[in-house]
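Lab notebook, bench 4. The sequencing result for the construct came back, and we need a structural model before the next group meeting so we can plan mutations. Quick request posted to the team channel:

Model the 3D structure of this chain.
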Amino acid sequence: MGETYEKLVAFASPFFSPPSPSFSSQIFTHIFLFFTLHPTLLSLHIPPTHLTMSAPAHKHKVADLSLAAFGRREIELAENEMPGLMATRAKYAQEQPLKGARIAGCLHMTIQTAVLIETLTSLGAELTWTSCNIFSTQDHAAAAIAASGVPVFAWKGETEEEYNWCLEQQLTAFKDGKHLNLILDDGGDLTALVHKKYPEMLKDCYGVSEETTTGVHHLYRMLKDKEHGLLVPAINVNDSVTKSKFDNLYGCRESLVDGIKRATDVMIAGKVAVVAGFGDVGKGCAQALHSMGARVIVTEIDPINALQAAVSGFQVTTMEEAAPQGQIFVTTTGCRDILTGTHFEAMPNDAIVCNIGHFDIEIDVAWLKANAKSVQNIKPQVDRFLMKNGRHIILLAEGRLVNLGCATGHSSFVMSCSFTNQVLAQIMLYKAGDEAFGNKYIEFGKTGKLDVGVYVLPKILDEQVALLHLDHVNVKLSKLSNVQAEYLGLPIEGPFKSDIYRY
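Done. Here's the predicted structure in token form:
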């Protein structure tokens, strides 16, 4: 009976949770009659949530719930490569530090994110989830999480309308009609939505933890805005050393090439590659393309980053000069209008254009669509635009994240570093005023209640994230002697660097 029920739910779910007005009421009627009149199915006692389209909310919306078993196998495999998250579960599970927390999460719904979600639930949290990008969801991961009982609203290839629908749905999907009391965000869309449209939800909210450079920029802008400003404490997870120096650099160094190769099958060796920006993401991308044999040109606005690129062996020039030379273009800046019409018109035939910053505004996709003579979709996330000058531009992932749109994103291990920071940030926000918890766990002992502002995780937590990953890469750590510790003026157990130290 249980197996039959699983098959029924897998078949029925896509029909009973429509994301748009295009859903056919006639189809609904036929399926409803089939389920309710068939004698075998009558005995299954199908839960009402799968037979309603009304408030309070759909309990999930994914592409195909039958992919759950596939997703579960990959989640179990990923757990072996995510030691930080698994160690965090083991350390805090008995304490249940997130019991009573209601976390609304908006972050790429991948296999690695599934391990993050299940870590948070294992620590006591109730979650609802959406993806922060219309192309980044891995449908089998979303199915596995939905099947586990977490309200998840995400599928690969959402429209903008469907994306916004998902954000709205997750806000009303908590049990008993309760509101969120924590936000876990990637890019700031969910944070912005709640602040602008549902500020009443923030009255009892402990705060926000933000994953990305783009989202952090938005948080600081909100903090400065006196009229429509930030209403809750926020933790800038992006600037944890174990996030930015690992996810942004080492993660992109592997996943960029993966995305380009899967999308185009192009040989990178011998090509001229242009990388816009030489921050942590840009550094990883430039290194990756160089290691594949490309001649890399970097564009920058910051003199320090430009100098870093130059002494790393890369040519640094303007995009106006680089555009006619480049055969592969990668934007990494988090800013808008990096590649515009002037640049497209100067590019050689079949130049490959992609973005690994957060939003699609780095590449002026609207200009391409408006000014190209025609566009041919080669395959999902690969479009070939015919320009008026007779040359072609190959655009990947519609200008959105190429590593997630055309591949599967960063490796599990590096995401374990990032996501362990997220878990610790959520605990820090939720338990900030819990003195007993701080006394028991020294790493949280100095946090204290947080006022509205943007914070980074304390160095002791940053170092703990690194510590949890050392065994997995066979690291043996040296230890200070008492004499050495006294000489340096450091505690033997750390932290070992000041907050202003640049790694």
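The CA atoms of residues 1 and 43 lie 9 Å apart.
Will bring this to the meeting.
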